[in-house]
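User: Here's a protein and a ligand (iron/sulfur cluster). What would the complex look like?
Assistant: Let me lay out the input and then the predicted complex.
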Amino acid sequence: MKSSLGVYVHIPFCARICPYCDFAVEAVGEAVGEAGRGGAASGDWRETEDRYVEGLLAELALRAATFSGRSLSSIYFGGGTPSLLRPESLARIREAVMDAFPPGRASPEITLEVNPSTLERERLPAFRAEAGINRLSVGVQSFDDSVLKALGRAHGAEESRRTLEAARRAGFDNLSIDLIFAALHQTPAMLEADLDEAVAFGPEHISSYELVFEARTPFGRALADGRFSAYPEEASASMVERIEERLVGAGYRRYELTNYARPSHEAVHNRRYWQRLPVLALGVGAHSTDPPGPGRPYGARHGNPRARVAWLAGVEAGAWPIGEEERLSRADAMAEACFLALRCAEGLDEAGFEAEFGVALREPFGDAIARFLGEGLLEQIGPGHLALSRRGRMLADTVCAEFV
Ligand code: SF4
């Protein structure tokens, strides 16, 4: 694992922007759907898509040396809506990444985020056969049309059902469903119905995210000026509990705070972030995790510019690095090792921490650990292994913040 690599590819385009979204995204309009079928807007969109893909390949060439010698374990096409790209565009990127970083013995996990829409549904067979995608993450969010409408989503529940069915028909045997909870007027009964329907489809993986009101989004502004009120904390905490109960009862394992999987279907790529393994991230607003190297003994983070114009100008001029760089200090790395491990079911391994940093875990963090054990927010799950308790998982942000 130490010499492996995950590659994240950010595709910033969405047909329209959801009012709660804080990702690096830009609206390309519903016309892109038509362009995908050779409609009126096809010329402009095709040019935008092709130039962006060229930019990704240029950035890959500029950045590959930092990660050289690593074997590819995963590619994740995220966004935005990466399934707006043509299958042949995704295939070009996948081939270039695999040429730069030949995979080891096991074949890499290649995930594509998909939004339920007619265009993307039609492309599923080509995503599988031509682009080599072997895992789909479907942005269902809810099977309740009133929730989807309130969230400003472009799709309806029926589109999700058709997309999931089409994905199975196209041969995808590794499907993940994204669900959102604590979403505006969503009631516990509505959440229950979402969980029932998700489980009934039998996906290999389910992620559940709480709706967050990010300050710079229309929803964040509505919250700030009182047009929305935040979901009651207690109600959202009991939803977290109910999600775990329901999904674990249906045979999924909670392997991370918000992620559930059937045995052996944990997301290879996503786990890299919690395990602090290197990720080369390409595209606007993408964040890389660079491995330790000269001048960065604990690795570094790189953030690309969020504006496509600035990112393209850099990569087309061959002028990377172009974004922010943060070289991790030993203290940063120790904090990360704790709070990321605590997010995962395996918890925090005290011996592993000491082997990596040359200091016992309880030296820097003894007070916080003793307090959280006393308050029942942390628990000992085996010799030298600490994890969040059931109550600790409800208050995960508070516990994790103590390690920073
Ligand atoms: S589809 Fe996803 S990435 Fe696009 S705007 Fe909506 S939430 Fe953001």
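Summary: The radius of gyration is 21 Å.
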